[in-house]
């Protein structure tokens, strides 16, 4: 299923922009109060998905893009299951003369049972919206300690 770029820009991107701007505006309005950290946390808590954890630091990612391939499930040595997939997001063109589009490819991991189920139903090239936080994973490989960055999904939906 493909969606016109205008719909994504006008509806979904604006909704996310409003989502974050609302939190920032409320933080600025309450800046002079003595309990500004607490007020800021409460404001962000109202704006974020239910499973989000908020402290004075914010590690929150929202992605809208297309799947670059079929999601796949892994069973880890610990017995845990995870579904991984990649989201491709267009950034625009490199320059006025060069019309090639620049894209970012972001790895996403779905750990919860609900998110794994939703992720496994996604098709290649389908539009997806992912909310989550960025994590760095470490593991032991034959060459030594290895790591990678990925988004840990707290909410996945199709568009």
Automatic annotation (TrEMBL):
Q: Name one GO biological process term.
A: DNA replication
Quote the Gene3D superfamilies the UniProt record gives: Nucleic acid-binding proteins (2.40.50.140)
> Its GO CC terms?
nucleoid
CDD domains, A to Z: SSB_OBF
Keywords, in A-Z order: DNA-binding
**Does this entry carry the keyword DNA-binding?**
yes
Q: Which PANTHER family match?
A: SINGLE-STRANDED DNA-BINDING PROTEIN, SINGLE-STRANDED DNA-BINDING PROTEIN, MITOCHONDRIAL
UniProt protein name: Unannotated protein
Source organism (scientific name): freshwater metagenome
